[in-house]
Design goal:
The chain contains 4 helices and 9 strands, in the order E-H-E-H-E-E-E-H-E-E-E-E-H. By secondary structure, the protein is α/β, with parallel strands linked by helices. The radius of gyration is 16 Å and the shape is globular. The two termini are 16 Å apart. The structure holds inosinic acid. Inosinic acid binds next to strand 5, helix 3 and strand 8.
Length: 180
């Protein structure tokens, strides 16, 4: 897998440092909140969320949704599908959505609208990476780990055609891989 990477953007150690910082920011903000739901968007959130939750110092529930807008392409299809819904009611609950990366913003806009429609008391977003130049729908996550340019990255949960998620770092995928 390493040979398919053009450039490493974040090492594993850098990811850990960023995650710890996000954890203490969120812990300070939610210290008086009543058991928020940390809602991971599958599958890319898995490594980030499993690290982040160790640094959250308040009682919380974890839940998952699987919402897809990419299919197997490197561009968002813009058509957001809910493949797996959350298992509990969000009515009157504080929800923290945990994302690997925000690109066009369409996935999150759809999920946030849905959670508000279902009566969530508050909905905020923590994302490891933000690609603001990719936005189609205006959106700014409250907690951002690291801002990247409009490049296609893989690793630490992020995939290309379901591969590379198990790389311990985040790197730019060589164009020759997806322009075959
Ligand atoms: P959005 O609706 O375009 O913001 O989609 C965000 C989702 O697209 C993320 O959760 C990822 O699954 C996927 N995505 C966006 N950019 C990348 C990337 O550079 N590499 C891998 N997946 C990406």
């Amino acid at each position: 897998m390493n040979k398919d990477i053009k450039e490493v953007l974040l090492s594993h150690e850098e990811i850990l440092t960023i995650t710890k910082k996000l954890g203490s920011l969120i812990s300070a903000d939610y210290k008086n909140s009543s058991k928020p739901i940390l809602l991971g968007l599958l599958k890319g959130c898995v490594p980030f969320m499993s690290y982040l939750m160790n640094y959250l110092t308040f009682p919380l529930e974890i839940e998952f949704m699987d919402v897809s807008s990419y299919g197997n392409d490197i561009k968002s299809s813009g058509d957001v599908k809910i493949k797996k819904d959350i298992d509990v009611s969000v009515f009157n609950r504080d929800v923290i959505i945990c994302e690997d990366i925000v690109d066009t913003g369409q996935t999150l806009n759809t999920v946030i609208r849905l959670l508000h429609h279902r009566g969530a008391r508050s909905v905020e977003v923590v994302t490891l990476l933000d690609k603001p130049d990719g936005r189609i729908t205006p959106f700014k996550p409250k907690y951002i780990g690291y801002v990247i340019p409009k490049v296609f990255v893989v690793g630490f949960g992020l995939d290309y055609q379901q591969y590379y998620r198990n790389l311990p770092y985040i790197g730019i995928l060589k164009e020759s891989i997806y322009k075959k």
